[in-house]
Amino acid sequence: MLKGRIKNINSTKYIVDVNDKDYDCVLRGIFRKDKITPLVGDYVEINEKDLQITKVLPRKNFLSRPNIANVDIALIITSVKKPDLDLVLLDKLLVHVMANNIQPVICFTKTDLLSDEELKEFKKVMKYYKNAGYDAILNENVLKFKRLVNDKVVVTCGQTGAGKSTFINRIDDSLHLETKPISESLNRGVHTTRYVSLYKIENFYIADTPGFSSLELNQLEEEQIRHGFIEFDEYDCKYKDCSHINTDGCKVIPHVGDEILQSRYDNYQKFIKEHNESSSKLFKK
Ligand SMILES: Nc1nc2c(ncn2[C@@H]2O[C@H](COP(=O)(O)OP(=O)(O)OP(=O)(O)O)[C@@H](O)[C@H]2O)c(=O)[nH]1
Ligand SMILES: [Mg+2]
Ligand SMILES: [Zn+2]
Fold first, then answer.
1. For residue 108, which ligand has an atom nearest its CA?
2. Residues lining ligand 2 (ion), CB within 5 A?
3. Which of the residues 46, 140, 264, 284 has the least number of beta carbons within 10 Å of its own beta carbon?
4. Contacts 24+ apart (CB under 8 A), 142-145
């Protein structure tokens, strides 16, 4: 019996990494009956003779988008131009990742496309996220990235065309991952990467993933949304579980627009509203 980690799935073919060696494996028939769907990142047991995957070992976590198991860090790739900076998607991804017990790291791309004036504005935004307590880097800062991901399993996530594959190529130029210019007319990417694939670089793993343009925060608790806005915890509201929606005793609301970035609060309010609407719909069913 061999034990390894799934690096890539292409229809019925599973590439499994066993002690840094790749094995072409298939699934033993029984999996389809049990409805277990192994994911990239899963640890599996393989029968040495026929290279059939016989067992998926318990997961420590998994994400539905991108679809992957057992990751330590989600690298949220966020372009500041082409496609334009989308703070709704960034805040949503922060909530999504943290709700799944994965540490987020924000990686901004394409700052070279900003004018001096735009760069100044952008720097304020980046500083805000850093001060709030998030790790945030620029895609050119490979050394800093490597320090953050020592021994870890990293999944990239973010908009199509944001520069996920380009970033991985920058870290390891022997990979030659496919990248494509964004569509000028739509001002967004063209879904170049189609599958989740895990690569080992030095002492860490990183997954390239298909990008998306939107994301739903389904099935989250209100509390999980609140946890995705870590800086709000610094404020000592009158009620311990204050939802920061009603002004009564709330210490967050008075700081919106000065200490608290307006878009952060607007997005928070938006996610809570969407959450309440979807749960009232469920209730009516
Ligand atoms: N100017 C500039 N262009 C960049 C940067 N990073 C990526 N790009 C370009 O952006 C385009 C899209 O990059 P990709 O790496 O294919 O984007 P992706 O996130 O992998 O996209 P999907 O695979 O569709 O999800 C390519 O033309 C890249 O050359 C950057 O920092 N600056
Ligand atoms: Mg890609
Ligand atoms: Zn409050």
1. 1
2. 164-165, 192-193
3. 284
4. 142/170, 142/171, 145/75, 145/105, 145/107, 145/171
Residue 85, CB half-sphere, CA atoms under 13 Å: how many? 18
- Give domain 63-208's CATH number out of 3.40.50.300, 3.90.350.10, 1.50.40.10, 3.90.550.10: 3.40.50.300
- Which letter does DSSP use for residue 60 in this model? S
Cα(228)–Cα(129) distance, integer angstroms: 12
- Quick check: 171 pLDDT over 90? yes
Class of domain 2-58: mainly beta
Q: Is residue 179 in contact with ligand 1, taking CB distance under 6 Å? A: yes
Going from the Cα of 105 to the center of ligand 2, the distance in angstroms, rounded, reads 18
Question: Does any ligand 1 atom lie closer than 6 A to the CB of residue 82?
Answer: no
Read off the pLDDT of residues 87-119 as tens digits, 9 standing for 90 and up.
Answer: 999 999 999 999 999 999 999 999 999 999 999
pTM score over 0.90: yes
Q: What separation in Å is there between the alpha carbon of 125 and the centre of ligand 3? A: 22
Q: How confident is the model at residue 46 (pLDDT cuts 50, 70, 90)?
A: very high
Mean pLDDT computed over 6-31: 92
| Count helices and strands in the chain by DSSP H and E runs | 7, 13
**In the chain, ranges of CATH 3.40.50.300 domains:** 63-208
